[in-house]
Design a protein that fits this description.
This protein is mainly α and 447 residues long. It is 43% helix and 11% strand. It folds into 2 domains: 4-259, Alpha-Beta Complex (set domain protein methyltransferase, domain 1); 279-439. A 3-stranded antiparallel β-sheet has the order 4-9-8, with no helix packed on it. Strands 1-11 form a two-stranded parallel ribbon. Strands 2-3 form a two-stranded antiparallel sheet. The longest helix has 33 residues, at 407-439.
């Protein structure tokens, strides 16, 4: 997956890759492995200078054609894990028959353990050519150092959740290591498995997450319909249709259709010109007496559903000019700003009667409440990032201390801030227009 997408001509990048990587036997091995297990595909894995890997079309792929029809037996999933007796014997002997590791989060723990088990088999693993392509380092946020997180993520809306996720990964890893599994002897191994699953899982019902050779190596780009992989009618294949036409030699791309905070958090890249981008803000109910609070919560439930009837609610806001470019239009995500305005307007009712009769019209107070939250986020993200210190000259050069910040992560933080600040400024303009319209309603002639 690219660090930050810039759509350079892929054939040029491919040429550079052949110069940069004169000997990539593991890629040839993987392509042979994939062709053997999933014939009749027009896809090949390549390595090139800008990204880690990419997938190209080896023949023309028409738009909306079925360009992957990958056997589910080729995927790493909870289903293939439970169908592997030696692995399940180890799970039962070390974790017990009622460990419950297959439940929740799409089978995250089960799949992570199965990935580590297959890695421990080396070349004896049926997935060895695929495993050889997997990265050993990451730029997703759980891999950042404490210094990088503290200095580069100032104002990031998910900082508290990030700290919890990192602690949970380490706690889960330590608990699993303590069970004596022969293929998991260090928490660092579990961190690697968790990063693999977070950066490249592909989901479909009913099993949840999967690692899908070739398909999980397709990079992301904006401006196309959202990616969707579905189980074939016979339940034996993972099917994906092309979002647009790809000529022979083109890089095959998918639109993951997520905001940049998701890309940064889970994948370790940021998209330019992301039509699915939005900014998270959290709104809270003001202090109210019990009777008013009950009426407000009832009004919120009626207007926004159960997810909106909370003392604290998070909305991902996108200006209309951005959300209108989504193909196809999203549902709740597109409505993030209107829903936030409605929440804030209903939340500030001062009496049960006012809450009961506020069936949906926005209020100036509601608009100003949302603008205050946006302003706060804007201020937090406007704090300048620290500069990368110049390298220290040492003799020999290898004695120089490592940089305080990974340059790619510094660039990621800068790209995320730039894109998010642009969204916030557009939101401020739109909120000003809302307030102006409500303060000065149109005259009869204007209607």
């Amino acid at each position: 997956v690219p660090l930050r997408v810039s759509l350079l001509p892929f054939r040029l990048l491919l040429l550079l890759s052949l110069i940069h990587c004169a000997c990539c036997d593991y890629i040839a091995d993987f392509n042979a492995f994939f062709t053997n297990h999933a014939p009749n595909h027009s896809l090949a894995l390549v390595r090139h200078a800008q990204y880690s890997h990419g997938v190209i079309a080896t023949a023309a792929i028409p738009a909306d054609s079925l360009y992957t029809h990958i056997p589910t037996s080729l995927t790493l999933s909870p289903a293939t894990a439970t169908a592997t007796p030696p692995f399940m014997d180890l799970i039962r002997s070390h974790l017990g028959t009622n460990s419950g590791i297959s439940a929740g989060s799409g089978g995250f723990t089960m799949l992570g353990l199965f990935l580590l088990y297959q890695r421990s088999l080396g070349t004896a693993s049926p997935w060895a050519p695929y495993l050889a392509t997997l990265p050993t380092s990451f730029h997703s946020l759980t891999s950042w150092s404490p210094i990088e997180r503290r200095h580069l993520l100032v104002g990031f809306p998910r900082s508290v959740q990030l700290a919890k996720d990192i602690a949970e990964i380490d706690e889960t890893g330590a608990a699993l290591v303590a069970r004596g599994l022969p293929f998991l002897t260090d928490v660092a191994d579990w961190r690697w498995a968790a990063s693999i699953l977070n950066t490249r899982s592909i989901w479909w019902a009913p099993e949840g997450r999967h690692l899908v050779p070739m398909l999980d190596m397709v990079n992301c780009a904006p401006g196309m319909r959202p990616h969707a992989t579905r189980l074939s009618p016979d339940g034996a294949h993972a099917d994906t249709r092309a979002p647009r036409t790809f000529a022979a030699g083109d890089e095959v791309l998918e639109n993951y259709a997520q905001p940049n905070w998701v890309y940064l958090y889970y994948h370790g890249f940021v998209l330019d010109d992301n039509e699915w981008d939005c900014v998270e803000v959290t709104l809270r109910l003001p202090q109210q007496d019990a009777e008013v609070r009950a009426a407000v919560v009832a009004a919120l439930r009626a207007a926004l559903g159960p997810s909106g009837a909370r003392d604290e609610a998070t909305f991902c806001l996108a200006p209309t000019v951005v959300s209108d470019r989504r193909t196809p239009p999203s549902d709740e995500a597109t409505l993030g700003l209107p829903r936030a305005l409605l929440y804030a307007s209903l939340a500030h009712a001062t009496s049960p009667d006012e809450a009961a009769t506020a069936s949906g019209p926005l209020t100036v107070t509601g608009v100003r409440t949302v603008r205050t939250a946006v302003t706060s986020t804007l201020a937090a993200l406007s704090v300048p990032l620290p500069l990368i210190p110049p390298p220290v000259a040492t003799t020999p050069p290898s004695a120089a201390p490592p940089p305080l910040y990974n340059p790619k992560r510094h660039a990621l933080a800068s790209a995320f801030r730039s894109a998010t600040l642009d969204l916030l400024q557009q939101l401020m303009v739109e909120l000003d227009e809302y307030e102006q319209l409500m303060s000065d309603p149109p005259t009869h002639d204007e209607l």
